[in-house]
Design goal:
There is one protein chain. The protein has about 140 residues and is mostly helical. It has two domains: about 40 residues, no CATH class; about 90 residues. It has eight helices and two strands. The chain has a two-stranded antiparallel sheet with strand order 1-2. Helix 1 crosses helix 2, helix 4 crosses helix 6 and helix 5 packs across helix 6. The two termini are about 35 Å apart. The mean pLDDT is about 80.
């Protein structure tokens, strides 16, 4: 579990979590950390192994291409995120920025692409305006490449 994962679970900043995780020098405690903050971190449950439980990171290039395909087809990041069980900003990051991602997420994206690429998003409950906005944004991103 990374410092960012702990921060997300505890609802705290990643900088604060990194300060907490830093090994104290000469047995001293980390200064300036409130007891309630410490309790929030210590009370954070570890995540259970998800789905296939595949370990490790992989290149995000294929997942990025697949998410871009779905965007060109009109599938908004919010709809994809809901189906993947992740945050819409994570969908956008994987599509546009991230270089690596967890293998289990890459496989879920591949399966979602296979499931949705032939479907019309407007017929699956996505508003026509959202479909049009998503397609236009995808076209702008493709033109910028």
């Amino acid at each position: 579990m990374s410092a960012q994962d702990v921060a997300d679970k505890a609802g705290l900043s990643v900088t604060l979590i990194r300060r907490l995780l830093r090994t104290p020098i000469d047995g001293r405690t980390v200064r300036g950390i409130a007891r309630t903050t410490e309790d929030a971190v210590l009370g954070t449950p570890l995540p259970s192994r998800r789905g296939t439980g595949l370990p490790g990171l992989t290149s995000a290039s294929e997942a990025s291409r697949l998410l871009s395909d779905l965007a060109r087809a009109g599938w908004p990041a919010t709809a994809l995120a809901a189906r993947l069980g992740i945050n819409p900003s994570t969908v956008a990051e994987v599509r546009d920025v991230r270089l690596r991602l967890h293998l289990d997420l890459a496989l879920r994206i591949r399966g979602l692409h296979r499931e949705l690429i032939g479907r019309n998003p407007a017929r699956q409950g996505i508003s026509p305006a959202a479909v049009a906005r998503t397609r236009a944004a995808a076209a702008r991103r493709a033109a910028g490449d």
